[in-house]
Amino acid sequence: MRGPLRPDVWITARKRNGYRLRVFYYRGLDLAVSFLVTAGWLAYPRSIAAVGQLTVLEIAPYLLGWLGGMWFLLASSSYSFVSPRGIIKHALVAGGCIIIGSLAGGITQIALDPDGTPRYLVWACGFAALIFCLHLIWAIAIRKGRLTGALTPNVALVGATDHAERMIQAALKRRDVNILGIFDDRRARRPDRVCGVPVLGETEALLSHRLTGYLDCIALTVPGEANERVRQLERRLTLMPNRVVTLIQSEAPSDEEIAHALDKMALTPVATLRHPPSRDTAAFYKRLQDIICGAAALLLLSPLMIAIAIWVRLDSKGPALFRQVRHGFNHEEIVVWKFRTMRADRADHSGVSQVTSDDDRITRAGRFLRTTSLDEIPQIFNVVRGEMSLVGPRPHAIAMKTGQVMSSDIVADYAHRHRIKPGMTGWAAINGSRGPMHTAADVRRRVQLDIDYIERQSFWFDIWIMARTLPVLLGDKLAVR
């Protein structure tokens, strides 16, 4: 069932997260380009190496002006792209921030060397013009991202109420939020559609619905006076990996309240660089860490990967690589790569049957690769592609069972482990919880360790886990994988 607010191009929440983090690269490029232009101006007409021969008094006005301009640019939310500015207005505001910020340097220049003031003013105007042009490009890119859906948030509403109807009507006018569907538990009273947006089932259906991996936000549109119903829904939705918000508190919300609620959702996927550091900031540094370390590991381990691929092919018939669909960030289904460790005609692509200690499906090469976890090395490709991270909860097969029960049904908080990208290694792996989970206690311990990691995640924690991974894996002789 297709509604009027569904996107033309489907982009998963993980990919939209990647788009929104580009704002950090924008700022880095602004800093680098403006710094190099300033250094070149100071050295002109000599070589750039002449900057090192300048005195502190010659550099100080420009340094103050550059720092002041960049500070005002950040303080004005020019990197969040959250204000309703047009493209030209945004660029003008960015250029104006540079003019204002460079005033401190101008005053310093007048105090230290009045004769150098005209030259400083030319630099300040050029600095402002440079930022104007760069932010003109950024604003166009952001506008394009909104139009294509890359930066337009996907939302599901819980509650087929009058509030939902008013919100959809307002969203149809604004077109900055994609409302994909509505979920409602009231079977007897729920309609098939609300303003053309389909009602897709009960709230429980969200846990396994194919839309879940595309959702940035789940919004409660239940009237605030229905306190008990709201609390029940919030408790049930805490099992979801998605962000959950209660948008409408009053019984009869005004148009302004509806607009404010839509603003909260529309601006969800846009990063901000203001302090304190946001989850977006942490996600940016984690992605940067994955790109740098992942690319380096891919380069260094390429000879080993080629040797293992040849060994696997010689050891048994079949391809060197094995792929399996697993859950990634936000319930997204991703294809994970490994070296094949089972006989090709008995490989379990669904992941239903977990490995046992005397599993006759495993090849001779596969037993060694599993013991040392070398079979996981191809997942570096998943890391570089952005589907996985170097550190995070291990990705589980979608249909994995513990005994005769789906592993995801054993622990209520199981979906919480999908609130972050899955990893090649993780907190659970270095604490002995790796490989198959044959009992409910195994599942509970794995999920608890994964949630523990998500709550503690930081750059240095990831570095420590990576440093601990190899010694732990080599010393874990009893692990069954």
Give your account of this protein's structure.
It is a single chain. Helix content is 48%, strand content 10%. The protein has 481 residues and is of the alpha/beta class. The strands form four sheets. It has a six-stranded mixed β-sheet.
Task: Compile the SSE list and pairings.
Elements lengths: L12 H8 L1 H22 L12 H20 L11 H15 L1 H10 L4 H32 L5 E5 L3 H13 L3 E6 L9 E2 L2 E5 L15 E4 L6 H11 L5 E4 L8 H12 L12 H37 L5 E7 L5 E7 L24 H9 L6 H7 L3 E3 L9 E2 L2 E2 L16 E3 L14 H17 L2 H16 L7
Parallel strand pairs: 1-2, 1-5, 2-4, 5-6, 9-12
Antiparallel strand pairs: 3-4, 7-8, 10-11
Helix pairs in contact: 2-3, 2-6, 3-4, 3-5, 4-6, 7-9, 10-12
